[in-house]
Task: inverse folding
């Protein structure tokens, strides 16, 4: 692995927004293919095909109940709409912030090699982006609104939204955002989820979400040399928000557990 010099990391981060990987959804095992033909299986494909037996049985039981197909379709639609709403807010806010800082030369570079404008400007840019007309289907409106409110309250800087990562050991994926998180005051990789339940998800059901985020943080480090200080999973419910935070130690542990699952996946499907 070649680690980028700090002064190069801002440019590398920008390049992640225009992935050279081609997405292949021709079957249930989503993968990405680079210009040389190398295949990278998606993080979610790897995790869903290596579920622990108890979770696999529980999921199959849920899928077999009457109405589960319709519920799953609604959940997917709700999640997609909510993600797109957040992506639009973050991208518009990032553009407003970038244009202002470029025009007034108010960027400040930090030790991690990333540029940041004034935090107050980021907040104003997010508020402006939230206030722009953006039609959201009624089935996802409360979820999208709750996520947007969380963004306004917790994001101190936006570095990237909906960017691609991959790792030479054979996986790839799309991360929702790289931000500065106000709460611990550090660089954070972010993942948005939605849940149809009015109650918080049990902690054990967040395990694969944590591994997914750990894999993204690992891929980001491999590609750019950028190390995050935390990972955050933000789960929107109709009646509120559930947040799961990972510190650097938990992300490192998640990386090891994800690597085990990746090896299981390769062995299961004879991938070399």
Result:
């Amino acid at each position: 692995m070649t680690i980028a010099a700090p002064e190069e990391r801002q440019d590398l981060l920008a390049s992640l927004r225009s992935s050279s990987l081609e997405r292949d959804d021709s079957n249930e095992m989503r993968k990405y293919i680079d210009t040389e033909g190398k295949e990278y299986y998606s993080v979610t494909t790897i995790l869903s095909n290596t579920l622990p037996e108890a979770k696999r049985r529980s999921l199959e039981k849920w899928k077999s109940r009457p109405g589960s197909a319709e519920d799953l379709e609604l959940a997917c639609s709700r999640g997609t709409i909510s993600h797109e709403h957040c992506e639009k807010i973050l991208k518009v806010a990032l553009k407003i912030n970038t244009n202002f800082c470029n025009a007034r030369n108010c960027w400040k570079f930090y030790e991690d090699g990333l540029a940041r404008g004034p935090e107050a400007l980021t907040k104003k840019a997010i508020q402006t982006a939230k206030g722009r007309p953006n039609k959201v289907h009624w089935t996802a409106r409360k979820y999208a609104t709750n996520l947007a409110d969380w963004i306004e309250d917790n994001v101190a800087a936006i570095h990237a939204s909906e960017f691609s990562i991959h790792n030479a050991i054979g996986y790839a994926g799309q991360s929702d955002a790289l931000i500065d998180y106000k709460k611990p005051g550090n660089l954070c990789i972010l993942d948005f989820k939605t849940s149809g339940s009015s109650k918080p998800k049990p902690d054990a059901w967040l395990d694969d979400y944590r591994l997914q985020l750990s894999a993204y943080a690992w891929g980001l480090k491999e590609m750019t040399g950028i190390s995050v200080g935390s990972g955050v999973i933000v789960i929107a419910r109709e009646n509120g928000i559930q947040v799961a935070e990972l510190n650097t130690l938990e992300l490192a542990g998640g990386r090891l557990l994800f690597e085990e699952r990746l090896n299981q996946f390769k062995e299961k499907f004879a991938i070399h």
The chain is about 50% helix and 25% strand. The chain has one domain: 6-268.
